[in-house]
Amino acid sequence: MITDPWFLIAVVASFTGYAIYLAGLQRRLVEPNRASWLIWSSATLVEAFTYAAVNPGTPQSIVFMLSAAACVMIAVALWQRSRWSAPDLLEGICMGSSLAAILLWLVFREAFWAHMLVVAVVPVSFWPTWRSVWGDRARERSPAWGLWSIGDLATLMLATRTGGQDIGEYAYILVELACHASVWFMIGLGTVNPLRSFGWREGRLRVLDVYAPANPFAVRETHLGKAVFAAQPFGAGDEIVAFTGRRLPAERLPRRLIGQADRFVQIARDTYLGPSGGIDDLINHSCAPNAGLRFTGDTPVLVAIRDIAEGEEIAWDYSTTLADAQWRMTCTCGAPECRGIIAAFDTLPPDRQRWYLSRELVAPYLVPNRSDVAA
């Protein structure tokens, strides 16, 4: 039976899927849900053993054993690159059900009911992944889901060829097929072109395309009010966001700007960039910034001046665009090197001015006047 073509299709499709998914995980091309994979790795282990106990000697039990090992590998790889966070209620229910299945099997030796309990747990365990994909289907945009669906279908065909009629023989396969196919549908088959689920975009096949979140930013409250945090890692030199507000002459600025009401950025000696209504309005100042404003064209762009980790606040030094000697603001950024005051660029220490100038993070209109510190 191991030479059965359906068995070979099931093994090749399933484990090609696992290999592609693991490669995508290592290269940060997918952003899977940790809880789902933790549950799947434990559930598939239980399922593999209970299926073999309920249906001894079947080749599909070999497929389940190999799948369980692959799930554990992915769960370990995912956990190594993750930070701990407590499971929510639904995830806790899934984990508890998996534990109950293990106890049923080990303590009471009730393989059939342990098997059926895991079958019931599987669709519940998919909920965190469905929730993630619903919010941003790029998180799971991998051809693995299509390959797993094909592997499940081949396993189902293999089960029918063995002649078994017991519900326990088919339940897990059918549930797995439905769950895998549902994610496949959400990331690819739900679009006009089904090949998108295999990475077909812009006229060519991209099996391991780069994951880009739908929204690379998160807005949270801090001691300064609203602040912008990275929802994905940024590498040094990466463009973060363009500043796109309306340009205003200095004489048209509001006379009194206090705290968060001041969303104006000086971009020339007599010109300011007004609020855009976008994420750039909420990016705070820091005396030890991880980003800086670069003027390489008509639109200033915020770039990362060092690697920015996911979850880190994004901030830049407001003084790098300021020339107005009358404008000052108390700084409470909290950095060890906090200057206490945000003021014009020429109030910065000369070594700090040189540091910004050498990285082209100073508004161009300020540069010609800085020959004394540019060396």
From TrEMBL:
Source organism, top-level taxon: Bacteria
InterPro entries the UniProt entry points to: Flavunoidine_N-MTase, Post-SET_dom, SET_dom, SET_dom_sf
Domain named Post-SET: residues: 327-343
PROSITE patterns noted in UniProt: POST_SET (PS50868), SET (PS50280)
Record field: transmembrane: 6-25, 37-54, 60-79, 86-106, 112-130, 171-192
Gene Ontology molecular-function annotations: transferase activity
Protein name, UniProt field: SET domain-containing protein
